[in-house]
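Hey,
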Amino acid sequence: FDANQKIKTVFVFPGQGAQWISMGKALMESEPVYKSELEECAAVFNKYVDWNLIEEINKPEKESRLHEIDIVQPVLIAVEIALAALWMSKGIFPDVVVGHSMGEIAAAYVAGNISLDDAAKIITTRSKLMKQLSGKGEMGATDLTVEEANELLKGYEDKLSVAVMNSKNSTVISGEPTALNEVFAKLEAQGRFNRKVKVDVASHSPQMDEIKQDLFHALESIQPQNSTIQFFSTATNEIVNGANLDADYWTKNLRNPVQFGNAVQEILKESQIAFIEMSPHSLLVHAMNENIQDANAIAISSYTRDKNELVEFYTNISELHASNFSVDWKSIYPNIGEFVLLPNYAWQKERYWFDQKPEFVVASSVAKKDISKNLYNINWNEIKLDATITAKNILIIKDIYEHYIIVENALKQKGCIVISIDLDDSLEGIKADMVIHMRSFYKETAFSFYFECGILSLQRLINHFNATNQHPKICVVTNGSFILNQDKNANLNASMLTGVLRTLENEHE
């Protein structure tokens, strides 16, 4: 993301299918906001059901009733609401909410369009009515486009319908089991993907017509309202004013196809989007990633089934931060007084410098290989240097050809105080603003010679200046480090030394 431009945050609330035994228990134990929100949901839901939400989450697998539609749907809505509260407690708020099927109920509450009491009434009524149809319907996933699915369902309109459109090639068909088997047999013969979904209720199919009037009458008393957070409807494929989320809307939510892919595509018309799925397990991140492949967007989950919920949640916050999303870290670490910039490289505090001269082995010669096609050219231009020397005290490490004398005289003419010493001379009492290391300027090509006169010598200099709290500029003169147009001879040992110098530069800024 470009941090200088607006990043729109979208909270995504999935439908049924993300549940797992003991989901959210770790977050309840460690995140007070999450626990408090679940407890509030439980208290309100108790008005409409004869079971306790927290108890159902904590039940072991043998006693769990999360396979029952009239229990799992309200529990999931409560978990989604609690997750949204947790994200917002960390300073991450939605600009837009999107719900998938029943997930629109949690989305409407989080957006401020309906009260928690209304949310409880909608989901408990809806799930109880759907339970009446358990065992009568099936749903199946395909890789069909919407156009292909509609063509395939001609003649089955009274039994089957397109229930979900997650992306361009991800369509779910729902309805009467025998009819669905016939359609899937055709897909199998064509070699097209088809797979049954583990549900026994045909949501968003003609079977829902049996209960939608009962749902409408039960919800006539709800009082939706507008809010500042946008509610993008997957039932009508548009932004809907909160005040319009009335009983009539929730019958459309039950019967109309879920146009999730279309909703994502519309939202992506904005420049930068962060989609965050409010779910105990990722159901829609894959579909979102299919839709955002060529967009400036990111899709992340809240946590994952059977993994450490706390680690997963904060890892996802870190993923947001890594994408250049602005995270208010003080909402996560409220007791921190100030933030400290980290070094450019995560040094592991392992020491690799040599404490004694190594024994060198002469390497055997190897056959030359034509690598000309893998070389790149650097153009160098000769210039006349007339630099101003700001350093006063200069130390020169002599070279064996006495070129240092020329440099020494030139510096003295500029008024510098120059000390020239041999490689092994004592450094005691020496103070310098600049060091010109010329001992690495020579024709010898033995690695051991370069190592002792280059790397070990530089290490000795740096240790001395560190011990005496000095920070001189260090200039190392080499020959043959780069191939120049007028000088085709390369000195690989000198090239190696220039690489070491880059490391030293990073370590001793």
